[in-house]
Amino acid sequence: MTAEDTLAPTGTMAGASGGGERRRHPRCPVGGRAVAFYGGCTCAVHDVSVTGLALRCAVFDAEQRAADQVDIFLADSSLYLPGLPIRLVAEACIAPPSMFSSLRVRRLGLQFGLLSGDQQRSLDEFIAVCRAPLF
């Protein structure tokens, strides 16, 4: 595990300050198989657990717009999870900004809010598909 793989609630890397993994639930790497629609951006889903997910987003604006919902699409299974309630708990720059570009890559840590029964079942199915080996 690298420092990049652990985000602290302040948006700093927990590994950089000597902190360890603080999540209660194991994360499932998604490996570029899913995209999320968050705050007007299309983001790559980095990993997911039953309590939240990490996204990587290319951000052109000065500030990432926070949103209270995220839509997730898993391409290889056609799973679509619309309108999942979330809150932003961590944000970090993972690619240094270039003086020649307004593009920034941000890693966002999102925590799920209260999910409906259908949303929880869909999330459980999403995680199960992500854990299944690719053939």
Could you characterize what this model shows?
This protein is mainly beta. Helix content is about 10%, strand content about 40%. It has one helix at about 115-130; strands at about 30, 35-40, 40-50, 50-60, 70-75, 80-95, 105-110. The radius of gyration is 15 Å and the shape is globular.
- Write the CATH architecture name: Beta Barrel
Low-confidence stretches: 1-18
Mean pLDDT: 80
Outline type: globular
Which radius of gyration do the C-alpha atoms yield?
15 Å
Gap between N and C termini: 25 Å
Helix residue percentage: 10-25%
Topology as H/E string? EEEEEEEH
Strand order in space, largest sheet: 2-3-4-7-6-5
**Total individual domains:** 1
CATH fold node name? Thrombin, subunit H
CATH superfamily: predicted glycosyltransferase like domains
The portion of residues forming beta strands comes to 35-45%
CATH class descriptor name: Mainly Beta
Structural class: mainly beta
The major pleated sheet works out as:
6 strands, antiparallel, barrel
How many H/I helical runs? 1
The protein's oligomeric status is single chain
Number of strands: 7
Task: Give me a quick take on this structure.
This protein is mainly beta. The chain is built from one helix and seven strands. A hairpin with a 4-residue loop joins β5 and β6.
Layout of SSEs?
Layout: E1 28-29, E2 34-38, E3 41-48, E4 52-59, E5 69-74, E6 79-95, E7 104-112, H1 117-131
Antiparallel strand pairs: 1-3, 2-3, 2-5, 3-4, 4-7, 5-6, 6-7
